[in-house]
User: Fold this.
Amino acid sequence: IYRILIIDWKDEAKLCIGDKTIKRIFWGLVFLLAVGVFLYSLTGNLMSKNNQRYYTQGLNFILQKDYQNAYYNFSSVERGNDYYCPSKYRAALAAQNLYDKNSASIMYKEVINSCQNTLFEENSRYNLAKLYFEQKEYKKAHSLFDILANSAKTEKYKIAANYFLGEILSDTKPQTAVSH
Assistant:
């Protein structure tokens, strides 16, 4: 026999004996769990709709060439949904159109790290490498172009990466420019 001290809704202490109290506690916990699951799924649907709305608004702003608002909307999409990778990639493109190379670089790195084995990763790696090349950060550009040249799934990225590797080698070491 279990003896449990409980306080009922009238704040009166009672000593309850037996299985009735255990059943009450069990069903109370089941009820709380069910309410928690319901609230979690409700907030998940709301978050998903918000992410979809941010993504759609970002696309509309891109069409209007309003890159500042596009960047804001794409950046607002949260991790863990289908809109995350395309949103972060498009946020990077919007930042580039705003000539904000630092923000573009951050977003491209986020896509490379979070969206592996997708076309967004490959596009981001290429665009980030080009940003580094334009800023004359040849060591960083070289490492990214080297990855693309050796493992890109898209042939155009392999060709472009090899071209830029040749350019980097000719800019940094003119006497030893070798095809890669």
